[in-house]
Design brief:
Number of helices: 21
Protein name: Exocyst complex component 2
Distance between the termini: 199 Å
Subunit structure: Component of the exocyst complex.
Family: Belongs to the SEC5 family.
Keywords: Exocytosis, Protein transport, Transport
Order of helices and strands: HHHHHHHHHHHHHHHHHHHHH
Number of domains: 3
Shape: rod-shaped
Radius of gyration: 43 Å
Helix content: over 70%
Strand content: under 5%
Pfam families: Sec5
Number of strands: 0
Length: about 550
Amino acid sequence: ASNTADTLFQEVLGRKDKADSTRNALNVLQRFKFLFNLPLNIERNIQKGDYDVVINDYEKAKSLFGKTEVQVFKKYYAEVETRIEALRELLLDKLLETPSTLHDQKRYIRYLSDLHAPGDPAWQCIGAQHQWILQLMHNCKESYVKEQKGSNSLLHSPMLDLESDVRPSPIGHLGQTASLKRGSSFQSGRDDAWRYKAPQQVVFVEKLTKLVVSQLPNFWKLWISYVNGSLFSETAEKSGQMERSKKNARQRQNDFKKMIQEVMHSLVKLIRGALLPFSLREGELRQYGGWEMKSELSGQWLTHVIQTVRLSSESLTALEIPNDMLQIIQDLILDLRVRCIIVTLQHTAEDIKRLAEKEDWVVDNEGLTSLPSQFEQCIIHSLQSLKTVLDCKPGEASVFQQQKTQEDVCQLSIGIMQVFIDCLEQLSTKPDGDIDTSHLSVDVSSPDLFGSIHEDSSLSSEQRLLIALSNCRYLERHTFLNIAEHFEKHGFQGVDKITQVSMESLKELDQRLFEMYIEFKADPIVGSLEPGIYAGYFDWKDCLVPTG
């Protein structure tokens, strides 16, 4: 009977065992479907960018199956680890990708930290951003140098499309807002005609400083977040990561300081290469220069550049970067200010040389032409154009702090005065034919001397000498003293020396012109007496030698 029962129910029992086995397998699959579906879910969520979901699932799987000995679970968990490793690589690539926003950088760093990525992703990101900024700066220089030489090949490079690629920065906007109020160079709506007229070096400095002011704030904030550990959420489980981050930051403070200094040095040397190439060594000039210097920038453009660099310095100072890291920018501003003063005074001397062409010999009631007044106004206008350059902004040193600068400015100022004195001498001693005058004999004692000059546009040499003497006397008593006051008002050093040397030179000219005038007036008298002296053909040789 037993055998018969086994025969009858064997098939049924076999199907039952198979069903139970299948049911158990389904129960296992259902119970652990999270792990079995996790590799596919990870891939899908990565494609959608749901990294938070991936990290949460990974943490859960790691806590449940990280130390399992079940072969099936170990196999699937290994698949999970493979995909997580690929995610780490993907996130690291995204982290080091440039350009990128500070928000994205912090997000990727947190993801990598939660995934226990090896190394220090935050520091890798800081290093990548540092190299990116340096590359941007040098590419900016190369593009403008090539454009100056007639090539626009790099000007439209994606790395230089600052309007779309640079990361937004509140500090950058702060600097731009301030500059808008002051009419500065960062004005985004600047007229294209201005850029067309501006020298390439000036436009380059504007672009370069704008680049640094827009990029450096986020770079600095990333470091601050790295230092204080705020890259990680301040929860209990992340406290260990925060402490490790702070410890790493303390160890790398000097390295980061060198990064900031390298950016500042590159900024300053690139500007020096464009505007002050003589201040760089030969090796530095090859790296940071390359500009075609057909002529030096005028004082007006140098003043504009100084304002641009000053605003950049203010924006960087607002980041609370230590002053010792920004001192190199202050040194650059000082050198630019000194150069601007030197160039302006040199151009002023050239302008004064051309005053001789404007002399119309029209004499006023005081016996003066407009030349002394034009000379004084030219000096005043030059000094007024230097007012913003001479004024010291917070943190800046006086342009006259160095003895050499004082001496150079003093000599240039004396040179300007001497140029005008030479101009007076040239006008008063120029041959009559050069200025189309007729030879008129005018009595110096005539009360209508200057009246006749008003009426007749042509002057004799005697008249020009007399007018020049009148101008010299006015310069000595009024103009030179007024100019000395303006020099002192603008903080020039050695004003007494400038005045003394100029006065001595003026008096020497006055004496020479007076002697020339006396000679002109004496010649007719000598000419009339001389024939009578020799009328009797008297000769001392015929006289006896006195004896006794």
